[in-house]
## 1
Amino acid sequence: MTGHYGIIFPIVCMGKENKTKRVDVYCRDGHVLFENYLKVGGGRLQKVYEDEIGEDFTKSVGLPQSAVIFCPECNPPREVGEVALIHGRRAYKVIQSGIRKVVT
Ligand SMILES: [Zn+2]
């Protein structure tokens, strides 16, 4: 009888539902790419839905699908994402090697 279950169980249950939060996304060199992005769900940032971005510093709105997104500041240009349609919504798939890791 450890009595631990009463403590651990509620934390595990709450974990997934409460991971929605606003995050800023930066390139590897620390330039801001997306500000105030509403990230839903825990884990590593894989994609960024266009309509949940507070401010898009990459100015990627209107780019065609599969277009590569670059950091607006890096020289030479650094690839940070790719335009995609995910679940019928416009989104940018992030390129993990181009951005600072975002985990919630
Ligand atoms: Zn950069």
## 2
Amino acid sequence: MENKFELQKTEKGFLFLPMKGSDTAKFGGIGVCDFCANYAAEGKLIPALNCYYCNDCFERWNRDASYYPEDSNYENRKAQYYLEILNNH
Ligand SMILES: [Zn+2]
């Protein structure tokens, strides 16, 4: 089976999963940006935060956030958790 969702990484090192708002239903979401609360037909899931952000908020967040390499184990575990849900439902 071909995996539909693929992990990507920002230049700072944050993992994210591009997806459609409707995809968030697979883990109980409703496609609403967790930052600005607007519906986002397309956005990005940030495993480390357990958040789905619209593209604008994602850009802003990635610009301002600091990446801590010591958090990467946690981040990877969360990312695999989401990937499993997304690719198996
Ligand atoms: Zn937003």
## 3
Amino acid sequence: MTDIVQHLTQDHQHIDKILTALEKQVDIIEKDDKPDVDLMIEIMDYIRNYVIIFHHPTEDLVFILMLAHDDSARPLVEELFHEHEEEQKRSAALAQVIDKAF
Ligand SMILES: [Fe+2]
């Protein structure tokens, strides 16, 4: 696995962890309890300033380059793309709940 693919895979693991933490806070909101707003702000800041600005554009470029140079990379690209789509669905669902709550 190339360094950049390993980096993107690690990003996905980190993003999964922070989305899980954010989902826990959303569960607290939905139970009309008090969430950790500072933690939520830190997570949203990470998503806005790292995931959206750096991770996603890097991923898009890497996917294109991998497929252009090595079609055998397609299963790995499809796996990473699937993880990417799942992240985006979870992020969008969380954003809707958070927007309604605040
Ligand atoms: Fe991704």
## 4
Amino acid sequence: MNIAIIGSGRMGQALSALFVEAGHEVTLSNSRGPESLDEMVAALGPNGHAAEVTDAVAWADVVFLATPWGKTAEAVSVVDDWSGVVVVDGTNNRSAPGPDGLIDIGDNVSSVLVASYVPGARVVKAFNSTPLFILAPALGANAGANNAVYIAGDDPTAKSLVADIIASIGGEAVDTGDLATGGWLQGMTGPLAGVMEMLTPADARSRVEAARAALDAGVTTHSNETRSNNMAKVALSKSIELNADAEEVWEFVSDFAGHASWQPHIQSIEMQSNGERKVNFTRGDSVFDRIAELDVAGKRLAYELVPGQATPLASLLAAFTVRAVDGHTEVEYAITVEVPDPMQDMARVGIGADIDGALAGLQERFSA
Ligand SMILES: NC(=O)c1ccc[n+]([C@@H]2O[C@H](COP(=O)([O-])OP(=O)(O)OC[C@H]3O[C@@H](n4cnc5c(N)ncnc54)[C@H](OP(=O)(O)O)[C@@H]3O)[C@@H](O)[C@H]2O)c1
């Protein structure tokens, strides 16, 4: 099949590699022109190509959108006529991981908005709900039983074409419904979003059924990120300077499983098989959290609460950032939580103490 991809960043590259491996012809495009993609195309081999967006779309049997939310309308606007084109929308209304990265689109469903940018196109939402660093390694040559990929759309023929493409890369499409309902279920504020593990198709299907039943019963299980009534956001950030090598400090700080050894508020950590942590606090309670972003080049580890737990926190996003500054190393530890209004003072004191304890632990570790 001829597959055009608009956007050649993380998603464009991950999908193009899978598609080429499956024998498809792939044309990548971006805003900087095909020459800027020479290296990427060479790495893809003879089935990889690059073109201007308009040429890529005219050539393709199916077009994947892999652009940042804020650039998507502009990216597709260069094409005059989208009538009948099968468009796979992999975008999310998000600028970064975590609660602060969500882009407010009111009551709109993101893929319904995207469909309005490509009038006449047959839009299928897919590949949006799981981070690529989890999704891509579980497909292609490595594909196993945990290979479900959610899809939503209004056009059955387009959906079946996309399901075939997913099957060609070792996945199994799991239908979440039409673009408005399924698109919402698997969109950023829906209950199927933010899946930090690959699911079996049976498991994915039962989650869809449960989510649809809850929806029919009037239970709106928005992710915590949209809960703002009577909630307060408390953000604290502190830094420390260490006389140590930044690489060495980063290696220590980024060991997600090892935080109990130097953060006094953590009694122990039990790593789960899906990469989540069960964090047992010294004060007696426990939560599950998970990595939201691991930026090795930028030396930044961000982690967040796994949604749906019995905790007064509607959300938590914490990040360690390590920087080499003038011969020493600076470590910043920032935590943002959303709590019910009456708890905000307590939360500020609590996270302040946790940050102080962690930074003191680092000071002690690197003071020699
Ligand atoms: N990364 C993930 O794990 C993940 C998972 C699920 C969904 N998503 C969603 O997938 C989309 C892409 O994410 P990403 O992580 O791949 O982003 P990314 O790495 O920032 O890549 C975005 C790409 O879009 C291109 N682009 C920007 N403006 C454009 C325009 N006007 N016309 C054509 N191309 C344009 C950029 O290239 P130029 O700047 O050179 O044009 C770049 O190649 C986002 O909506 C994201 O929310 C990402």
